[in-house]
Design a protein that fits this description.
12 helices; FAD-binding oxidoreductase; binds flavin-adenine dinucleotide; eight-stranded mixed sheet; about 425 residues; FAD/NAD(P)-binding domain; D-Amino Acid Oxidase, Chain A, domain 2; FAD-dep_OxRdtase
Length: about 425
């Protein structure tokens, strides 16, 4: 792809998209849809990294990104290792302090309210942006439309969460139902009687194999004439008036390049001189051959463990681990998650020898980075989707594609602008 135009479309621009997770594949599809010739580059097959191992929920209800806890009780709970939703590596903290300080700052109530306004404006489009691609990719068999369950063990916690959910649902026009203990066990007989009740978020869709969904989106992209190449994003270099990258199929050149490398984005942006507050929250999962699975994902909210019926078995997933991205896995949360899951269902043997580990790519202000690189012509940033990348990939890809073409954007792009960090 050394020419700068797609055949038959002289105004289109050839683009290299680096990273074939949900965000990169969605970028490739959105740009292709607008007539651009796209080469998608990854060192492995599409959808095999973070986008493989998540909980598979298209979180239409996630109008509020995860804030840094601001009350001392919650902080003390994390600091003293109580609960399973958060774990941290002490030795990783010094390097994390600058990003965590900004995360804390952004989580102050007044600032957070602005973030929720921006985030919810995007989240509300998430299903509409996925829907046509699910259909065209022939991925309907992977997707269910009956939501997920946010469950609580204690009556008091359930009551408080139910009040909050009812208020949020009213503010954001979300469909939800409150299931008490009896209703929950009638709806999900595979669950043991340890849960006091659940919020049934009814809008979200769930994906029984998120990695496969991304692979099918990538196959759609290739069927429609797009190119996928194996290559190392670290080989990206400015070349003439554009960019080039080395791939297994030779050097690819294009006028424009998009960095969509999720948790690895900073490897490249730091080399280019940007200091974006990107950090990771690692997470684990393991599949189990459960005798009977719940019909939809069930979160044990007080323990930060989510049980998800998947094609591979019952996926037991964990909350956030603050650690160096590449530090060896620590089995603390996944070990506890197995015990917690065994209290909730009749858990069978693990499918894999070891838990899977991935890293949520998080930005300190809780919003992804979508837009033109501040100081490099023809370079674009698209990463940092944190806890909701599977949900938001197509929605932010549309935003990026609109910016790319200089069109009016369907949501306000300013909150996602890479220049907001002053680089
Ligand atoms: C346990 C867990 C549960 C989650 N649950 C949900 C959920 O239910 N719903 C939801 O919406 N989100 C969820 N998420 C978050 C979601 O998975 C991520 O936000 C999303 O997958 C990020 O996608 P991405 O494309 O940015 O990154 P990735 O999927 O990691 O893609 C990045 C790509 O870049 C490639 N790459 C990296 N370096 C190089 C290089 N040097 N050269 C070439 N290629 C390279 C990688 O191979 C990879 O394919 C969860 C995450 C975790 C960890």
């Amino acid at each position: 792809m050394t020419d700068s135009s797609a055949p038959g479309n002289p105004s289109s621009t050839a683009v290299i998209v680096l990273g074939a997770g949900i965000v990169g594949v969605s970028t490739a599809l959105a740009l292709q849809q607008r007539g651009h010739a796209v080469c998608l580059v990854d060192r492995q097959a599409p959808g095999r990294a973070t986008s493989y191992g998540n909980c598979g929920i298209l979180q239409r209800e996630a109008v509020r990104p995860y804030a840094f806890p601001r009350d001392w009780q919650a902080l003390l709970r994390v600091a003293t290792g109580q609960g399973n939703d958060v774990h941290y590596h002490l030795r990783a903290l010094p390097a994390l302090v600058p990003a965590l300080a900004r995360y804390w700052h952004a989580s102050a109530p007044a600032r957070y309210a602005g973030t929720v306004a921006a985030y919810s404006a995007l989240i509300r489009h998430c299903l509409d942006e996925h829907a046509p691609w699910i259909a065209r990719a022939g991925a309907q068999d992977l997707v269910r439309h009956d939501g997920w369950l946010e469950a609580y063990r204690s009556e008091a916690e359930f009551d408080a969460a139910a009040r909050d959910a009812t208020a949020v649902a009213a503010d954001h026009a979300l469909d939800h139902a409150l299931l008490d203990r009896a209703a929950l066990h009638q709806a999900e007989p595979a669950l043991r009687d340890v849960l006091a009740g659940a919020i049934h978020w009814r809008d979200p869709w769930t994906v029984s194999d998120p990695g496969e969904l991304v692979a099918r989106y990538a196959a759609l992209f290739e069927r429609q004439g797009g190119t996928f190449c194996h290559g190392d994003a670290a080989t990206l270099r400015a070349s003439g008036s554009g960019w080039q990258v080395s791939t297994a199929d030779g050097t690819v050149e294009a006028a424009q390049a998009v960095i969509a490398l999720g948790p690895w984005a900073a490897d490249l942006t730091t080399r280019l001189g940007y200091r974006l507050p990107l950090f990771v929250k690692r997470g684990y999962h393991r599949h189990y051959a459960a005798e009977a699975m719940p019909s939809k994902p069930v979160l044990d909210a007080e323990n930060g463990v989510l049980l998800v019926p998947m094609r591979q078995g019952l996926r037991v997933t964990t909350g956030a681990e603050f650690a160096h991205r590449d530090a060896p896995p620590t089995p603390v949360q996944s070990g506890r998650a197995e015990q917690i899951a065994a209290q909730m269902v009749r858990l069978g043997a693990p499918v894999e020898a070891q838990p899977w580990m991935g890293a949520r790519p998080c930005i300190a202000d809780m919003l992804p980075v979508v837009g033109r690189a501040p100081r490099h012509s023809g370079l674009w940033f698209h990463f940092g989707h944190g806890h909701q990348g599977l949900t938001l990939g197509p929605a932010t890809a549309r935003l990026l594609a609109e910016l790319f073409d200089g069109d009016a954007t369907y949501v306000d792009a300013a909150p996602y602008d890479p220049r907001r960090f002053g680089d």
